Amino acid sequence: MFDFMDMEYTEPxxxxxxxxxxxxxxxxxxxxxxxxxxxxxxxxxxxxxxTPRRRLRSISKIxxxxxxxxxxxxxxxxxxxxxxxxxxxxxxxxxxxxxFDQAQAQLKAAPDWLAKLAFRLVENxxxxxxxxxxxxxxxxxxxxxxxRRSGLxxxxxxxxxxxxxxxxxxxxxxxxxxxxxxxxxxxxxFTGCIAxxxxxxxxxxxxxxxxxxxxEVLIPRQQSCCGAIHQHNGQSAASFIDTNIRVFNSxxxxxxxxxxxxxxxxxxxxxxxDGEATERFRQRLVDINDFLLKRxxxxxxxxxCSLKVAVHEPCSQRNVLKNQQAVYALLQKIPDLSIxxxxxxxxxxxxxxxxxxxxPDIAGxxxxxxxQTISASxxxxxxxxxxxxxxxxxxxxxxxxxxxxxxARQLPAA
Length: 414
Prior knowledge:
By secondary structure, the chain is of the alpha/beta class. It has helices at 34-38, 40-45, 52-65, 71-78, 85-89, 96-107, 113-123, 125-141, 144-150, 152-155, 159-162, 194-198, 200-212, 228-232, 238-249, 261-267, 275-284, 288-295, 315-321, 325-331, 355-358, 360-377, 387-395, 403-409, and strands spanning 176-177, 185-190, 215-218, 255-258, 285-287, 308-312, 338-341, 381-384, 400-401.
């Protein structure tokens, strides 16, 4: 039963210099097996190469020993979903996520044409805005079925991305949304890149709730992507970091709020050359679930709802932000609502940001496990605070939405 705890793990590790990342030696590992048993890829493959501690050996070679890694080591390293479940359970509190990103940056893999295109779309808001009407026309045209049958999408390696498409929002959000009630303050909303177009209902729900609780909402047009997709794939996120710090620090607001937990995880880990500016940005950065919970007016009563709701806890929320309890507490403000934790929340759904596109086979296996859990829950609705998780699961037949959307629907009429 606990054979994974006895796997051989004895490679020597070079000592870190004063300015190098600390990576513990194999002998320092407590061999508790917690990181192994929590790893989703080990759950699928049951081999030592697909464990955090084995990946850590590869990371050590890259960062400390300055040695090349084999193709097999690279493949197993790249199979990591970056869910960071191992980091959460490790008694030594290993900063695995940070080390993984540093290793990917050192490897500097040249992206292929498809990855380059994806990076450019994330980087360039003007390109995305121009692309959205064409995507809307495509979805309405009836071309999806014949194009899928033709096999062309698979040949171009676009089939997995095309399967995720939903109707995009074509109109830009306003730059300011005044409070509906007596104004208590002003906040800024981080909208993200892809979510700005494909998760518009969540952003509008966030604005509606903030306005109802007395907050004016600002949405700066100059903001950029959080940078997570670039950083987790070995690309530089410096321009995103610098832009967002500059744009949001220039605003006279009480807080900078995010609705997608994966973006929040990246934003909360920002580092830049200007330490003072970075600290100011971090001090005002708040997950919207936490913000609403702490500032909910006593006299704002929501309409009752008799649905049975299961809460999916995204890895970015459970393992990085660690504020999943705020979702349960917020939902409890809806009278008659039945709320339960989705079983096996500790296991990643497979979305992993761009992982569902770069590793569709592994992601698909984890997706199937999560779908089984959702079906067994008998829930009327599953809520998730991460955009990518909801997109991935919804594209394959599940029904997920952000908890903010449910809360906004239960607001009394003005």
